[in-house]
Amino acid sequence: MLEKLREFINELPILSDEVDAEMESMEYDATNSEQLRTVREQAQHNVCAHLKQEGQCYKVIYFINAMTVCGACDEKLDGAYVEINNPVSDKGMYINHLLLHTFIHHDQLYVNEPNVDVSGNMDGTRRIDLNLVNLLKVLDRAAVPADIEKEVTGYFAAKSG
Ligand SMILES: [Zn+2]
């Protein structure tokens, strides 16, 4: 279900990759980390302005050092959370990376995460669900191809029908 939406989310640009590419295209003469930081800020500013102009949603990966392995396909996922951001409306949503991966690649709207108590002991699992309605609200007013809107409308019509 929702194949087009899943592919669309999968292909959204990752902000840090876009900023890296922008820096490569810029001419700068930075010799220390502070100058480099300034250049990077300028690059990020350029990228965000461009994304906003295009109405292009993007992803930001958080806790990049956290790594999860998908139990279904063994893919390694860098980063604990992915934020989907809409520069037009300034709306965003954090999604557990494994949950987002499971939706995109395994067509499932939930995952069971191990529950770890304060002492670090495993204590069963807890289910986390993807809030599809909120996700679609985040995409609102951004550049979303018409066939995806049609697919989503059809999906909810079938669910309520
Ligand atoms: Zn997987």
Task: Describe what you observe in this structure.
The protein is an alpha+beta fold and 161 residues long. The chain has one domain (3-160). The protein is built from six helices and seven strands, in the order αααβββββαββαα. The chain has helices at residues 3-11, 15-25, 33-54, 97-106, 132-139, 146-160, and strands at 58-62, 67-69, 76-78, 81-86, 91-96, 110-116, 122-129. β4 (81-86) and β5 form a beta hairpin. α1 (3-11) crosses α4 (97-106). The model has no long low-confidence stretch (mean pLDDT 93). Zinc ion binds next to α4. Zinc ion is lined by residues 70, 72-73, 75, 101, 105-106.
Per-chain topology:
Blueprint: H1 3-11, H2 15-25, H3 33-54, E1 58-62, E2 67-69, E3 76-78, E4 81-86, E5 91-96, H4 97-106, E6 110-116, E7 122-129, H5 132-139, H6 146-160
Antiparallel strand pairs: 1-4, 2-3, 4-5, 6-7
Helix pairs in contact: 1-4, 2-3
Summarize the structure in short.
Helices cover 47% and strands 24% of the residues.
Which characteristics define this entry?
alpha+beta, 3-stranded antiparallel beta sheet, 161 residues, single chain, binds zinc ion, flat, 7 strands, 47% helix, two-stranded antiparallel ribbon
In this entry the ligands are: zinc ion
Spans with pLDDT under 50 lasting ≥5 residues?
Answer: none
Quaternary structure of the protein: single chain
Question: Numbering strands along the chain, what is their spatial order in the largest sheet?
Answer: 1-4-5
Number of strands: 7
The termini sit apart by 16 Å
State the helical fraction. 40-55%
Give a short account of the largest sheet.
Answer: 3 strands, antiparallel
- Gyration radius, rounded: 18 Å
- The total of helices stands at 6
**Principal-axis shape:** flat
User: How many structural domains in the coordinates?
Assistant: 1
Question: What structural class results from the helix and strand content?
Answer: alpha+beta
Task: Kindly report the average pLDDT value.
Answer: 93
Order of helices and strands: HHHEEEEEHEEHH
